[in-house]
Amino acid sequence: MKKLSWFNKVMFSFNIVLTVLTFLAYVLPFLAPTFFPFLSVLTLVLPLFLIMNGLFFIYWIFQLKRQMILSGIVLIIGITFVNKFYKFASNPQPEEDKDFIVMSYNVRLFNLFNWLPQEHVGDTIRQFINDQNPDILCIQEYSKTAKVNLRVYKHRFIFMQGKNIKTGQAIFSKYPIVDQGNIEFPESDNLIVYADIRKGKDTIRVYNMHLQSIKISPDVNEIQDNVDSISQQKSQLMVRRISQAFKKQQLQAEILRNHKKECHYPMIICGDMNNSAFSYVYRSIKGNLSDCFEEAGNGFGETYNFKYYPARIDYIFVDKRMKVKSFQNFPLFKNSDHFPILTRLMME
Fold this sequence. Notes:
Blueprint: H1 6-27, H2 46-62, H3 68-77, H4 79-85, E1 100-106, H5 121-132, E2 136-142, E3 155-161, E4 167-173, E5 177-184, E6 191-199, E7 202-210, H6 220-229, H7 231-260, E8 267-272, H8 280-286, E9 290-291, H9 292-296, E10 314-318, E11 322-329, E12 341-347
Parallel strand pairs: 1-2, 7-8
Antiparallel strand pairs: 1-12, 2-4, 3-4, 5-6, 6-7, 8-10, 9-10, 11-12
Helix pairs in contact: 1-2, 2-3, 6-7, 7-8
């Protein structure tokens, strides 16, 4: 430290602070948000921490400074997190008759209140679904009022709620639904629906989840404007709101985890988790299931239309008895604040 220039001393001080924050973010997925609700916000920006540590590593290595060891250690320890936010292209696997396709999509009420300026959003989404032709379709923020006809699906379970604005969770299937139900959460309008679907000789439990929203605008410029207007107060309110949402999500994840313990069928859990892959909520829900993006995804796998940051908050988890043959997200299909995700599976 003594041999460093004053500028490098400042840089290394920032490097140390970043290291501490990164290690905290590494540990937080193993700690319930109720214990450290404010710190849990760090899990949202762990990919950014990893990128910044990489930049520090490059900075020190070009100067042949031993300070590079610090960032190097951080990156080596965090190597297991990389696949959760970036996946190098997987080799495509041949399609087979046994394959079936699952899609999950938060459609934001099919743009019922014209959040997006374009016309006929509901019809565009319907056409996209027909083109992709999933065998099982899970929709969050479904709206009957939008009158989007998905008649190709003979079997469906739609659970609607709300007084003035009706919104729902829906599962559509080309295979028979032999049982169905919903899981409501205390003090929340969010919920989970599930259906037991008969495919050939197999019965598969499909959960469609929509967990508590953290209510962050997809426009970072809007967030920055709010922060600049009443800087400290606004940022504190935003962090407090996110941490409260994380505590609710923890309870919701634990309710789902307990519910799925009673299920002995191979299962699929998909939907809008409203949280990152580095969170306690993610670990709690995923359990010993496979994350389809990690198995067969490509690139950042972003699922939420957030400017300049590839946010992945929608997931498809599947039983280990299923082979994940492909996974796609569709970041160019901007007809909601979320992007659809799709996976091709085969029972093994």
